[in-house]
C-alpha cells in the first residue's frame, strides 16, 4: 500500500515482516487451567508474608526504563512551542495579520478556519491568541479568548451557557446563571456582562461550528443564530470592547448553509488548512521526537507512523496518537525501545478498537440507525457514497418495521448518527435542497460501511435483514431515487 507521494520520496508502508508480540521473546510457559488451579491452591496455602513479598517484588521491579522521557509532548491536547509547528506558515501569517489590529485597539475581522480534521486549525488559532494574551498583559490590557467546541452541544441555549461557563472559569467567578430554567436571552446578557467587566477585547473561538445544528431541522440552524448574535454584539454595544469571532470547521461548504443575515454580519476572512503529506507528518513527529529517550526509537518507526497517518487523510492527530500508542505498547511489553512491530500492532488496535468498541457500546436504537445509514452508503447506485439524512431515515424506518423495533423520530435518528462523528467514523455536513427545499444533514463514512454493517449484525437481531440483502439494496436505491428526483 503506497502512501501519498507528493515529492517522489518513498512513503510506502513496508510489508509486515515483524513477529507479533505473542511470538516474540520469552513469554513464559503455557499455563493450563489445571495447573492454574493447582497453582491457586498453593498460593492460598502460602503465608501472608510470601504474598506480601511478591507484591513488593512486583512494585520494586522497575523493569526496562520507559521509552518516554516527556510523554506530554505526544498528548493530543498539549500546547506545543511555536518551533515545533510544521508547514503552516501561510495560515500562521494570515491569522497573525487578521488579529494584529487587536493590539492597536482596533476591531479584527471575523475568521473562518476550515479544512480536514487534525490539520492544525485549533493549534494555529491557539498559538496566535496565546501570544496576544501575553502581549496585551504586558501592556496592562485584558484580551479574552473564549474557546468552545460544539461537538457535545445540541442547542443554541447550551452553546450560550457553555460560553458563559468558559468565561466564568477563565476569570475565576461563578457562572451566575443556571444551566436550565432561564432564557437564552438571559444567558447572553450574563455573557456580555462578564466580558464587559473583565476583558478589554475578546475573541470567540467556536470549534466544530457546523455540528451546532439545533434540534429542529426546519429552523435556522443554531450555528447561524449564534454567529449572528456574537458577531453583531460589538455593533449593538452589547459588548463594549472589540469582538472577533473565529469559527472552525471541517466542512468546506459551511458558509453555503448559513442564513443571509448571519452571513452578512459574520462575513469572515477564510483560512484554508489542507491535509498534510507524509513528509510533513514525519516532520511533525520528528519535532516531538524528544518525547522519547534518545535510544527509545528504532529508525523505522518515524517513517512508518507517518506513512500510516498519511493514509488516514493526513491527520496530524492520528499520527501523534499512533506515535504515542506505539510507545505505550513498547512500555507494556517492557521492550525498552519502540520498534516497527509496536507501530503495526498499535495501528491494528486503533483500527479495531475504534469501530468495535464503539459499536459494542451503542444502544440497539443507535445500532439500527448506524446500520441503516451504512446500508445506504454501501448499496447506493448513485455517484459518491454520502448519505442524505432523509434517505437514511426512510431506510431506518423500513428496517425498524421489518424487525418490529421501536421507531424514533427523524430528529433523534439524525442526532444518533451525528454522534458517530465524535469517533471519526462518519463526517457530517449540512446541505440545502435549493430554494425553499429546506436543509438536511449529509453523512459520509470515513471507513468501509460494509465492514461496519457486518459488525453490527454480529451483535444484534439485524441478522434477518442481512439475509435479505437484495431487498435492502432495492429499498435503499428506491429511496435515493425518490430523494434525488
Ligand atoms: N502543523 C503542525 N505542526 C505540529 N503539530 C501539529 C500541526 N498540526 C496539527 N498538529 C497537532 O495535531 C493535533 C491536532 O491538531 P488540531 O487540533 O489543531 O487540528 P484541527 O484541525 O483543529 O482538528 P479538528 O478539525 O479535528 O478539530 C494537535 O495535537 C496538534 O498539536
From TrEMBL:
GO terms for biological process: cell division; DNA replication. GO terms for molecular function: ATP binding; ATP hydrolysis activity. It comes from the Archaea. Transmembrane segments: none annotated. Pfam families: AAA_16 (PF13191), Cdc6_lid (PF22703), WHD_Cdc6 (PF09079). Residues 35-53 have a biased composition (Basic and acidic residues). SUPFAM superfamilies: P-loop containing nucleoside triphosphate hydrolases, Winged helix' DNA-binding domain. The keyword Nucleotide-binding applies. Residues 1-53 are annotated as: Disordered. ATP binds at residues 119-123, 276, 288. SMART domains: AAA. Keywords: ATP-binding, Cell cycle, Cell division, DNA replication, Nucleotide-binding. Residues 107-277 form the AAA+ ATPase domain. Involved in regulation of DNA replication. Belongs to the CDC6/cdc18 family. This is ORC1-type DNA replication protein. The lineage of its organism: Archaea, Methanobacteriati, Methanobacteriota, Stenosarchaea group, Halobacteria.
Amino acid at each position: 500500500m503506497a502512501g501519498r507521494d507528493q515529492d517522489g520520496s518513498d512513503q510506502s508502508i513496508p510489508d509486515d515482516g515483524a513477529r507479533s508480540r505473542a511470538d516474540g521473546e520469552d513469554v513464559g510457559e503455557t499455563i493450563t487451567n489445571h495447573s492454574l488451579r493447582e497453582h491457586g491452591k498453593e498460593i492460598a496455602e502460602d503465608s501472608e508474608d510470601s504474598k506480601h513479598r511478591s507484591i513488593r517484588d512486583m512494585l520494586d521491579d522497575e523493569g526496562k526504563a520507559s521509552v518516554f522521557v516527556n510523554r506530554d509532548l505526544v498528548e493530543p491536547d498539549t500546547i506545543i512551542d511555536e518551533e515545533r509547528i510544521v508547514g503552516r506558515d501561510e495560515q500562521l501569517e494570515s491569522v497573525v495579520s487578521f488579529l494584529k489590529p487587536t493590539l492597536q485597539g482596533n476591531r479584527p475581522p471575523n475568521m473562518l478556519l476550515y479544512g480536514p480534521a487534525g490539520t492544525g486549525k485549533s493549534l494555529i488559532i491557539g498559538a496566535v491568541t496565546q501570544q496576544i494574551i501575553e502581549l496585551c498583559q504586558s501592556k496592562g490590557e485584558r484580551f479574552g479568548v473564549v474557546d468552545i467546541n460544539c461537538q457535545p452541544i445540541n442547542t443554541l441555549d447550551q452553546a450560550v451557557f457553555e460560553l458563559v461557563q468558559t468565561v466564568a472559569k477563565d476569570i475565576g467567578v461563578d457562572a451566575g446563571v443556571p444551566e436550565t430554567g432561564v432564557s437564552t436571552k438571559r444567558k447572553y446578557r450574563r455573557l456580555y456582562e462578564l466580558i464587559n467587566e473583565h476583558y478589554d477585547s475578546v475573541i470567540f473561538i467556536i470549534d466544530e461550528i457546523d455540528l451546532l445544528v439545533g434540534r429542529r431541522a426546519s429552523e435556522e440552524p443554531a450555528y447561524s443564530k449564534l454567529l449572528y448574535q456574537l458577531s453583531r454584539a460589538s455593533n449593538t454595544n452589547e459588548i463594549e470592547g472589540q469582538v472577533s469571532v473565529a469559527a472552525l470547521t471541517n466542512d468546506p461548504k459551511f458558509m453555503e448553509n448559513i442564513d443571509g443575515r448571519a452571513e452578512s454580519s459574520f462575513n469572515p476572512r477564510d483560512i484554508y488548512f489542507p491535509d498534510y503529506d507524509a513528509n510533513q507528518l514525519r516532520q511533525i513527529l520528528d519535532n516531538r521526537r524528544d518525547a522519547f529517550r534518545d535510544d527509545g526509537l528504532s529508525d523505522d518507526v518515524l517513517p512508518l507512523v507517518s506513512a500510516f497517518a498519511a493514509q488516514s487523510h493526513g491527520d496530524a492527530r492520528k499520527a501523534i496518537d499512533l506515535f504515542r500508542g506505539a510507545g505505550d505498547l513498547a512500555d507494556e511489553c517492557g521492550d525498552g525501545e519502540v520498534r516497527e512491530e509496536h507501530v503495526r500492532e498499535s495501528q491494528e488496535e486503533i483500527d479495531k478498537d475504534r469501530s468495535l468498541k464503539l459499536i459494542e457500546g451503542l444502544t440497539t436504537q443507535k445500532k439500527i440507525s448506524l446500520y441503516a445509514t451504512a446500508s445506504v452508503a454501501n448499496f447506493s447506485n448513485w455517484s459518491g457514497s454520502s448519505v442524505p439524512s432523509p434517505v437514511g431515515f426512510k431506510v431506518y424506518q423500513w428496517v425498524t418495521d421489518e424487525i418490529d423495533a421501536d421507531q424514533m423520530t427523524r430528529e433523534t435518528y439524525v442526532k444518533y448518527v451525528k454522534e458517530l462523528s465524535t469517533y471519526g467514523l462518519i463526517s457530517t455536513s449540512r446541505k440545502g435542497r435549493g430554494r425553499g427545499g429546506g436543509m438536511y444533514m449529509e453523512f459520509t463514512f470515513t471507513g468501509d460501511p460494509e465492514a461496519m454493517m457486518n459488525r453490527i449484525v454480529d451483535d444484534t437481531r439485524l441478522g434477518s435483514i442481512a439475509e435479505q440483502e437484495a431487498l435492502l439494496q432495492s429499498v435503499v436505491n428506491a429511496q435515493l431515487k425518490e430523494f434525488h428526483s
